[in-house]
Amino acid sequence: MDYAEEQSMEVEALEAIYMEEYTKIADSPLEYKIFLEPIQGGGEDENHVAIDMMVKYPETYPEVAPEITINNRRGLGDHQIPEIMELVNTTAEENIGMAMIFTIAEAVKEWLNENNVKGADGSMHTAMLQRMEAAKKAAADADAAAARAAAADVDEDEEAEEARRLQRLADGTPVNPETFADWKVRFKAEMRRAHAEGVGAAGGVAAAALAADLTHQATPQFTKPTGRQLFERHLATEGDEEGDEVKLEEDGEDWPEAAQEEGETVEVNTAVFAADDEDLDDLDDLEDSEEEEGG
């Protein structure tokens, strides 16, 4: 492995990532520092703690761990620096053989974020504030977990109920004396309700239909007489080539109202009676012939 090339490539990447937070101290051996705070680029109002991570490469890095020291820049107590160093050493051991400075730096930033409390100097007051903050966060997490579990239970209950409903539809309702009696009671109740609603709605229609029927019965119905009826009643009188005028007698059941007016006449075509006259003459001759044969 070309250690110098590996180290040079890593430093180039770190300069691009951390930019102003990266500061080179020496070239041989390669040494630099990275300024770390919880929110990169944030102000002191947001970042209550901050450190300088000092890095020095051994000749055979990354086959061996780098030399790293932590300088407190803001907000940390003396007893907290060893905690950070323990985190640094553990992370370095886990990444022997590969470029590891970025991994170590991000682990330290996460620790700083968890301890980003104003006045986090390791005093009893600060410790109490941290415990309160941790308890508050734990309670919020527990509430969120409970809400998710409740929502999941509701979904499961709804799914189970839907499955039962579909199963009931598939199985149908078993018919036995109890279910039939229950259905009969409900059916009769529905029929009575439907009948009551129907009577109320149909009352007006029925009344109108009854009134129309009575009116129809009270109105005289007239039927125009046939030609034979006119002839048999001897209502036909004098005619001419175009048609004879015949005086019609009143008939309350057969004649239209217009024909009952006094003196009104209708035109009758006597030609329609010619066939009836011949039929009557033939009928008279037939009767005379039968009488002669019988006598």
From TrEMBL:
Region span, Disordered: 236-295
Spans through the membrane: none
InterPro entries referenced in this protein's UniProt entry, alphabetically: GIR2-like (IPR040213), RWD_dom (IPR006575), UBQ-conjugating_enzyme/RWD (IPR016135)
One Pfam family named in its UniProt record: RWD
GO terms for biological process, alphabetical: cellular response to stress; positive regulation of metabolic process; regulation of gene expression; regulation of protein metabolic process
Gene3D superfamilies per record: Ubiquitin Conjugating Enzyme (3.10.110.10)
Domain RWD residues, every copy: 9-115
Compositionally biased spans, kind Acidic residues: 238-265, 275-295
UniProt-recorded name of the protein: RWD domain-containing protein
